[in-house]
């Protein structure tokens, strides 16, 4: 069992590494397609693929890092690395969008001269086909091996393929109609699309990095578990939760009679910790014991026992 899990992790890491190589090849091809054609739309598509290289590296880093158990330097585990990487990814995406906007603006104001557009379109189409095939591989293996990071990156590639197909159709139209101003206009649409994607990634990981509290439903389950297992104690208060990736850290104060022995209080704490950690996967509970004069009024959100 352990060996099969290890080899699956190895395979996931290998596919994640291959993903970086494929992304680099696609960027190179798309950049060549831009160079031979001078098309702003193909430039925007190439820049979007640079984002893919960064995304591929982020996914690799996240898979490798999240597999590491807690160590003496990071005693609560490494689950936040993923969000830090995603924040960086969001910032890089924004930079790519701004670069495309500048290029599109220059094209709109100064006009565009499309050269060898058929060659450019052919090279870009080949790169897009590689992307589409690779997206299929990532989603298939990611699903088989239950790796959310691979599946997510595969779906991200699918949206890129759709963008590329849009760029190819638009640029073909621009060449056919001779209306070359369509070219920077398509690029501007791609830039807005990329910016939206970057904003979503950045805000999502930002709220998770800022120690977001558990949802009201989870908090209700915690309070329910305290009520059901707190017999012998008087009250629980100052319940605080914070999420870090798949980990959920929970802490609260437990008021017990001052005359209670350490043995008895500890038994209640163990019972509470075990029941909460059992009912909420990935949770870690820490309880601070207090005598009755530290009890808080009921309207403070305290759980009476
Ligand atoms: Zn207290
Ligand atoms: Zn203990």
Features:
305 residues; alpha+beta; Alpha-lytic protease prodomain-like; Alpha-Beta Plaits; 2 domains; four-stranded mixed beta sheet; elongated; binds zinc ion
Commentary on this structure:
By secondary structure, the chain is α+β, with helices and mostly antiparallel strands. Strand 2, helix 8 (262-279) and strand 3 (283-290) form a beta-alpha-beta unit. It is elongated, with a radius of gyration of 27 Å. Strands 3-2-1-4 form a four-stranded mixed beta sheet, with helices on one face. It folds into two domains: 2-209, Up-down Bundle (Alpha-lytic protease prodomain-like), CATH 1.20.1510; 216-304, 2-Layer Sandwich (Alpha-Beta Plaits). The protein is built from eight helices and four strands, in the order H-H-H-H-H-H-H-E-E-H-E-E. The protein has helices at 2-37, 40-66, 81-110, 117-144, 148-177, 182-209, 216-229, 262-279, and strands at residues 235-244, 247-255, 283-290, 303-304. Residues 266, 270 line the site of one zinc ion.
In percent, how much strand structure appears in the residues?
5-15%
Q: End-to-end span in angstroms?
A: 43 Å
- Would you identify the CATH architecture of the largest domain? Up-down Bundle
Alpha-beta classification: alpha+beta
- The name of the CATH superfamily of the largest domain reads Cation efflux protein transmembrane domain
How would you spell out the order of helices and strands?
HHHHHHHEEHEE
Annotation, overall tally of beta strands: 4
- Overall spatial form: elongated
Here the CATH topology of the largest domain equals: Alpha-lytic protease prodomain-like
Please compute the radius of gyration using only Cα atoms: 27 Å
Helix content: 55-70%
Give the CATH class of the largest domain: Mainly Alpha
Read across the widest sheet, the strand sequence of neighbours is: 3-2-1-4
């Amino acid at each position: 069992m352990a060996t099969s899990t290890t080899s699956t992790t190895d395979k996931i890491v290998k596919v994640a590494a291959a993903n970086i190589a494929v992304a680099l090849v696609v960027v190179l091809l798309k950049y060549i397609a831009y160079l031979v054609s001078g098309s702003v739309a193909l430039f925007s598509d190439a820049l979007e693929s640079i984002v893919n290289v960064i995304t591929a590296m982020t996914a690799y880093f996240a898979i490798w890092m999240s597999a590491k158990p807690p160590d003496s330097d990071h005693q609560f585990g490494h689950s936040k690395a993923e969000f830090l990487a995603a924040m960086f990814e969001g910032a890089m995406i924004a930079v790519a969008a701004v670069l495309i906007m500048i290029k599109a603006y220059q094209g709109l104001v100064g006009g565009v001269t499309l050269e060898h557009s058929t060659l450019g379109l052919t090279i870009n189409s080949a790169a897009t086909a590689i992307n589409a095939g690779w997206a299929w591989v990532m989603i298939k293996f990611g699903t088989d091996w239950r790796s959310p990071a691979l599946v997510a990156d595969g779906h991200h590639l699918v949206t890129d393929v759709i963008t590329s197909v849009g760029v190819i159709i638009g640029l073909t139209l621009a060449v056919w109609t001779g209306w070359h101003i369509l070219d920077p206009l398509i690029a501007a649409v791609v830039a807005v699309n990329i910016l939206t994607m970057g904003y979503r990634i950045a805000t999502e990981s930002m709220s998770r990095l800022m120690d977001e509290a558990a949802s009201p439903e989870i908090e209700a389950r915690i309070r329910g578990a305290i009520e059901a297992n707190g017999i012998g104690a008087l009250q629980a208060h100052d319940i605080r939760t914070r999420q870090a990736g798949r980990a959920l850290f929970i802490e609260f104060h437990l008021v017990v009679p001052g005359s209670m022995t350490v043995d008895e209080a500890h038994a209640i704490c163990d019972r509470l910790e075990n029941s909460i950690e059992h009912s909420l996967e990935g949770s870690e509970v820490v309880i601070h014991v207090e005598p009755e004069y530290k009890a808080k009024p009921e309207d403070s959100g305290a759980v009476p026992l």
